[in-house]
Amino acid sequence: MTASQRHASRPPDSPATQATLGSLLADETRIRILRALYAVQSEETDCDGLPFSTLRRRADVTDSGRFNYHLNQLSGELVTKRDGRYVLTPTGQRLVRALDGSDDQPEDGVAGS
Fold first, then answer.
1. Model pTM score
2. Chain CA centroid to CA 36, Å
3. Residue 99 in contact with residue 31, Cβ under 8 Å?
């Protein structure tokens, strides 16, 4: 079970949830992954996510194994995989908006909605 999946089973305001999110966001690679997904989902109204290699390139991570490890840590509550492509969950979108101080964006995080 990844840290993100453990987080999904807890109430959002619990200290354990906040600690889990803190540990997930303690690594710059994970933040770059979240921001890369958010950027493409914000740019494209019909975004169906990014495949592994494209997401890795957009997140600027050269080591495939390292990237895979960090992506797996985010999988579940913040990032999900559909048809071989990765997308931010609504929780992941809200988190990126909060990180970037733009939490007044549309709920789904997609421009033009």
1. 0.73
2. 8
3. yes
